Amino acid sequence: MKKVLILGVNGFIGHHLSKRILETTDWDVYGMDMQNDRLGDLVNHPRMHFFEGDITINKEWVEYHIRKCDVILPLVAIATPATYVQQPLKVFELDFEANLPIVRSAVKYKKHLVFPSTSEVYGMCEDAEFDPAQSTMVYGPINKPRWIYACSKQLMDRVIWGYGMEGLRFTLFRPFNWIGPGLDSIYTPKEGSSRVVTQFLGHIVRGEPINLVDGGAQKRAFTYVDDGIDALMHIIDNKDGVANGKIYNIGNPKNNHSVRDLANQMLEIARSIPEYATTANEVKIVETTSNAYYGEGYQDVQNRVPAIDNTMSELGWKPTTNMSDALKKIFEAYRLDVDKARHLVDNE
């Protein structure tokens, strides 16, 4: 019976992962976060041990539970592009500096560290598919602080790999634009995820214009959260040590769509659902520039498709949810509480 430590347990990945663990295994979850609104009734589950705290403050609790647990998932991170541009030091301090002691404790107590890297580490790589063992990582100039997130995450990947050379059991996973219910709220603008779906959903339920940055031609490979959690469960289970020392892209190359296409698909679905139709019909698509939307320190990636051959073959996993079904499930999740969706984060 595994004991799994999830730091950032109330975040997008954290709460979905906790739910799956508690529903399908006999594992215990030890979770820390500053809030528990997404966890709902899970906090009362006999195998959920929730602690309200902050990794930068409650350091003794964190170290004690790293020693106590078998698998460590440090999911606390700022992962919002607006913050990269406006507050780059805040991103570095949390995503790298605050997570480094957690990594070192996993080394000290010889635990399996499952660390969230990011699809952003590949930067402006021009490969048709980003391969964790082959693709180069290409970033813009220093005056584009957008890259501090990718750079911080890449440095952590390299540090973890270095510890792996000295005996650390680790697995790095790179989520490619995971989407699903519970992605964001106005109160918790953190945790690795695809913000653009949240933005568009908020605009649709409020009847506001959808802004397409630089025309919305940039593409992303979107992954439904249930598919992502499937892969994570295989990594945590780590049968026969298959995931030790590995880097896995977790994404769905078949769901590669432009941001403009995403906006049109979301509007089409919304107009077909009575609870959304009225406000959806008021939405106009407008074009804006990245400088106007994010600030001068922004750069973007035109295409971001994961190579997932090793993820599928080693973990016995494959993504199964197509784009249309993924979006319909998100709309359905908020259908009976559209007012809740109206408060989705709108600060990017």
Average pLDDT score: 92
- Overall structural class, as computed from helix and strand content, comes to alpha/beta
Rounded to an integer, what's the Rg over CA atoms? Answer: 19 Å
Through-space gap between termini? 42 Å
User: Which blocks of ≥5 consecutive residues have pLDDT under 50?
Assistant: 186-194
* Proportion in β-strands: 15-25%
Percent of residues in helices comes to 40-55%
> And the CATH topology?
Rossmann fold
Order of strands, main sheet, comes to: 3-2-1-4-5-6-11
Keywords: NAD
InterPro entries: Arna-like_SDR_e, Epimerase_deHydtase, Lipid_A_modif_metabolic_enz, NAD(P)-bd_dom_sf
Pfam families: Epimerase
Protein name: NAD-dependent epimerase/dehydratase family protein
Which properties best describe this structure?
two-stranded parallel ribbon; single chain; 348 residues; alpha/beta; Rossmann fold; 16% strand
Can you describe this structure?
The protein has 348 residues and is an alpha/beta fold. The chain has a single domain, classed as NAD(P)-binding Rossmann-like Domain (Rossmann fold, 3-Layer(aba) Sandwich). It has 14 helices and 13 strands. The strands form four sheets. The protein has a seven-stranded parallel sheet with strand order 3-2-1-4-5-6-11, sandwiched between helices. The chain has a two-stranded parallel sheet with strand order 7-10. A two-stranded parallel ribbon has the order 8-13. Helix 1 crosses helix 8, helix 7 packs across helix 9 and helix 9 packs across helix 13.
